[in-house]
Amino acid sequence: MTDQGLPEPIPSPIDTEYELGQDNVTGSLGPIGFDVHNPVFAISGLAVVAFVFYTLALPTQAAALFDALFAGVTTRFDWFFLTAANIFVVFCLVLIVSPWGKIRLGGPDATPDFGYVGWFAMLFAAGMGIGLMFYGVSEPLGHFTASFGGVTTGEDGLRTDWAPLGGAEGDAEASMRLGMAATIFHWGLHPWAIYAVVGLALALFSYNKGLPLTIRSAFYPLLGDRVWGWPGHVIDILAVFATLFGLATSLGFGATQANAGLNAVFGLPIGPVSEVLLISGITAIALVSVLRGLEAGVKRLSEINMGLAIILLLFVLLTGPTLALLAGFFDSLGAYFVYLPALSNPVGRTDTNFVQGWTAFYWAWWISWSPFVGMFIARVSRGRTVREFLISVLLIPSLVCVLWMSVFGGAALQQVVADAYTAAQEADLPLQLFKMLDVLPLAGLTSIIGIVLVVVFFVTSSDSGSLVIDTITSGGKVDAPAAQRVFWACFEGAVAIVLLLGGGLAALQSMVISTGLPFTLVLLALCYTIVQGLRSEMDAPAKLA
């Protein structure tokens, strides 16, 4: 392998004759240079354009297809998503306590490129940002309401309710515990284990083995030099699809919530036109960050986001029922571990609406995000040991998510149960955060901070996503022309806009499910290749930190 823009020296390189960029097409269009992989860039771009054109040209047919895709995948493969996610959690926990945890990404002399504050900020912003803002209030409320309502069945004897497990009919305290446990289940160990598998595989095979920073590289133990041919092309194209549609879904959620917040605070009309304007404006802001690069762009915005998120969290904690929220954090964490075996059980479930409509969708969404978040985590994690990497990527963000949901969701639940305030519970999903904030002091100011957080999370997701897609479609080059990242940032925004106009959030969710299914197989294979890579590192004691 020749230089690929990664730090040297490579501690234990894989012996391959592949040259970084040997399949790339380079040139310029006027003053704009390009350096793209052939055929990954062309097939990915043209396939997405064809899909977008189909959505606009045949909206009724496309909507029917989206509905069929979502229903078909979630009803037939819910067990597969749950089983795979369980495997990823167990795999990461085993690696943390194994001797392989001593291996350092980049070799024994590698030092971290970023300090802990900047590193955690980027992990948090890239991995969960928009989702935590959108679902932090609404999901605990939704699960509580469904649990409190109990089990209902149709004429066919099948359940029609959305309660997790067996619900807790008429029991407010038990419904709160079950609702919070179900929420934490969707935002805790399982999604972060999905991200950790991809991030660890990319970091190991790039920093320790000297292969390009792209998904196909992690399959070298399975495919050998065939990874540079069509098997590798298919893997990278799948990664582009999964990343693009996963990002588009999150951008759609972010746009609807920002629109709802601006309507509540400033009276901005709610509707597709406003959402299109928001996506366009925020994509334009993201372009500035893209051009500033990783250090001055994504890292700076992530730190701003982290600061604003901490301010808003502390405000809700201190102005809300503080003691109840603090007690709720530990109570919710305990409930999570109590209900975890039942919630993660992939077979014999009767709560089909919850499993298929919530859990299967979430796992497919996280898996769709995994190439993007995993590669981004790998980009910023050189110099960490495997153990440090997994603890920081798996356990610490999970606890942050528990705290966030316990404070925001807990505040909303206390309003319903203790104060009989149901405005947040009855509001549309994107508006529930702002209705919760309405009864706290300085509601106008905190709502504005919430909108800013959604927007900046939006920007960091678009920015880091375009950087990752560009790396994949340029064959693993981390220093491709900036114009390509600009192209992908614009493309992501355009896809989100078209799918929102053509089929709304249902279209976005259907594409997440559809791309998440095949990519789950990719992640399962990565578990095997990671073991092979770590075993080869352990063969030489000098590789240990």
Automatic annotation (TrEMBL):
Q: Which residue windows are transmembrane per the record? A: 40-59, 79-101, 113-135, 184-207, 228-256, 276-294, 306-339, 359-377, 389-413, 439-459, 486-506, 512-531
Q: Which domain of life is it from?
A: Bacteria
Q: What organism, scientifically named, is this protein from?
A: Frigidibacter albus
Membrane topology type, per the record? Multi-pass membrane protein
In its keyword annotation, does this UniProt entry include Transport? Answer: yes
Q: Which family does it belong to?
A: Belongs to the BCCT transporter (TC 2.A.15) family.
GO CC annotations, alphabetized: plasma membrane
Q: What is this protein called?
A: BCCT family transporter
Q: Which UniProt keywords apply?
A: Cell membrane, Membrane, Transmembrane, Transmembrane helix, Transport
Q: Where in the cell is it found?
A: Cell membrane
| UniProt xrefs under PANTHER family | HIGH-AFFINITY CHOLINE TRANSPORT PROTEIN, HIGH-AFFINITY CHOLINE TRANSPORT PROTEIN-RELATED
> Main localization of the protein?
membrane
Q: Which GO terms describe its molecular function?
A: transmembrane transporter activity
